[in-house]
Amino acid sequence: MLITDSAITLIQPDDWHLHLRDEEALQAVVAHSARQFRRAIVMPNLRPPVATVQEAEAYRERILSALERAGSDAASFTPLMTLYLTANTTSQEIALAAASDFVHAVKLYPAGATTNSDAGVTNLLDQCDQALAAMEKHGLPLLVHGEVTDPAVDLFDREAMFIDTVMIPLRQRYPALKVVFEHITTKDGVDYVMQAEGPIAATITAHHLLYNRNAIFTGGIRPHYYCLPVLKRETHRQALLAAATSESDRFFLGTDSAPHAKGLKEHSCGCAGCYTALHALELYATAFEQAGRLDRLEAFASLNGPAFYGLPVNTETVTLERKAFEIPFALPYGATELVPLAAGETLDWSFAG
Ligand SMILES: NC(=O)N[C@@H](CC(=O)O)C(=O)O
Ligand SMILES: [Zn+2]
Ligand SMILES: [Zn+2]
């Protein structure tokens, strides 16, 4: 990694948690991720979900075709596919996934926890024993949206509650299962991942490193800062920043870039998700610089993820220049528009390729 007053050059990063959607939405966003990242773990929460290896293969083809249509070099971006865990996921399907060279993980959505999670699992340990045992056996990681869905539990406590009621019993029953605690948002999540035994890691988004929950309510309600798990208080943001910039190799980059049409965000019941694929590395660099730890960006963005997934580190490098980047107010999104996170604001870093 090379850091000067005017630029940072690092091994090309990967995005270990990304929503690419499908059809015209996919077409609108895929080139943004391919511009900055070499690979991305692609979330399977389509409608209907990507639940089988065959469906993942077809989705992968659609992603590669969209890239070509967007004029990107399809060989320069590798979508790493995931399966959506359901009560019907069989151990045979897990074996097929593990044997394939393009499915890299299985995603747990607790039913009702987030966007397109209604096909998800209502009771993980009761419903998914065969699949989890097979994943543990084959070394296929489980990616977890770690929030309980009990409406009686306060929205801001759902991640902490998940650790005690699901994560700990899950990892007791399957101690060799590789688990990624996705988009962690709390000090509780950080503390758990830091001290837990066995194969566990966590992704952290740029928005959870940059903002606390006040961002959702600054001078009025700001739907483009609403995502799940929801932004938390400042003490939690500080814990996330400390973890991301720490010596621990258990934390890595996952944007959770989650596009929703402008009209569905600015709505009486607005969708959860922040769009960051356009300017992901600029946002992460801003957060790491604020912490005075730009020197830790490469490990977080480019080294820790491949190590956990057992994949090679990328060979290309990318450069960020210290040059103002004005975030557009809106981007084309099929027949509608997409509002990127922090639209209209200016960042100190620009991606230079
Ligand atoms: N993060 C979000 O707020 N939304 C994601 C789903 C998810 O990752 O939970 C989406 O698909 O829109
Ligand atoms: Zn999620
Ligand atoms: Zn997500």
Automatic annotation (TrEMBL):
Q: Name one GO molecular function term.
A: dihydroorotase activity
List the residue ranges forming a coiled coil, or say none. Answer: none
This enzyme's EC code(s): 3.5.2.3
Name the SUPFAM superfamilies on file. Answer: Metallo-dependent hydrolases
Residues reported in the UniProt entry to bind substrate: 19-21, 45, 145, 228, 260, 272
Which Pfam families does the protein's record reference? Amidohydro_1 (PF01979)
Q: Transmembrane stretches, by residue range?
A: none
Assembly and interaction partners: Homodimer.
Protein name (record): Dihydroorotase
